[in-house]
Design goal:
Number of domains: 2
Number of helices: 3
Helix content: 10-25%
Structural class: alpha+beta
CATH class of the largest domain: Alpha Beta
Largest sheet: 6 strands, antiparallel
Oligomer: single chain
Length: 237
């Protein structure tokens, strides 16, 4: 996906989950919206280079939103977790995700399941229905390139796995797709040391036929594109 024109700045601190203080290149300090509810471990270090989008909505308290970061190692990270769905949708539509080719219709945020969820992407066609849950992965935990999800205990993440298992039991395809938005990540696993219950549910879903994919994005201040399928491992190393 193409990004709007972004403004560069330097991160001072992130706080209260939804806020961050930055310093513009002019030296002006401003407060911006942080569109990420996770722990953002390794993605929000003071002094990191960041990129901001600008809104012209007069009702917004904070005009700018934090979109990207570059850490001390020079790795690019998209911290705007809601971008993941659009990035994956575009990749499916242009045929990047081989496993999800051949469907004639794609819908987003469709209500489904006994736990009253909304599926990120519902693919439909002659092949039947395919339920795709998208998760943004930005937590890099070692120099070997191990990326894990989630970055904090996630009851919601476990609920989504249960819903996917239920769809699989009804005879539909069910897919968990990790959208890797950190250029340093080389493979993905469940974050057993952060949320062991999620890891257990992840492996149960895998055993019950839920397909688990991971695709990595190339990230620049101009655009983000999925480009490379990564290995998914069943357990954190």
């Amino acid at each position: 996906m193409d990004l709007p024109v972004l403004i560069e700045a330097t991160l001072v601190k992130r706080y209260k989950r939804f806020l961050a203080d930055v310093e513009l290149d002019s030296g002006e300090p401003i407060t911006v919206h942080c569109p990420n509810t996770g722990a953002m471990t390794g993605c929000a270090d003071a002094g990191s280079r960041v990129w901001l989008s600008t809104s012209n909505n007069p009702k917004r308290k904070y005009r700018h939103s934090w979109e990207l970061a570059r850490n001390a190692e020079g790795q690019m990270i998209c911290i705007h977790s809601a971008r993941a769905n659009e990035i994956v949708r575009e990749a499916i539509e242009i045929g990047v995700v081989d496993a999800l080719k051949g469907y004639q219709n794609l819908r987003q945020e469709v209500p489904y399941g006994d736990e009253k969820s909304r599926i990120d992407l519902l693919l439909e066609g002659e092949k039947g229905c395919c339920y795709v849950e998208v998760k943004s992965v930005t937590l890099l935990i070692d120099d070997a390139g191990q990326g894990v999800f989630p970055d904090a205990v996630s009851d919601r993440g476990r609920k989504h796995l249960r819903e996917l298992m239920a769809m699989k039991a009804l005879g539909h395809r069910a897919v968990l797709l990790f959208c890797v938005l950190h250029s340093g990540i080389k493979w993905v696993a469940p974050a057993d040391l952060i949320d062991p219950k999620y890891g257990d549910t992840f492996r149960q879903a895998l055993a019950e036929g839920v397909e688990i994919l991971a695709y990595k994005a190339v990230i620049t201040p101009a655009r983000i594109r999925l480009c490379e399928q990564l290995e998914v491992r069943a357990q954190q190393q």
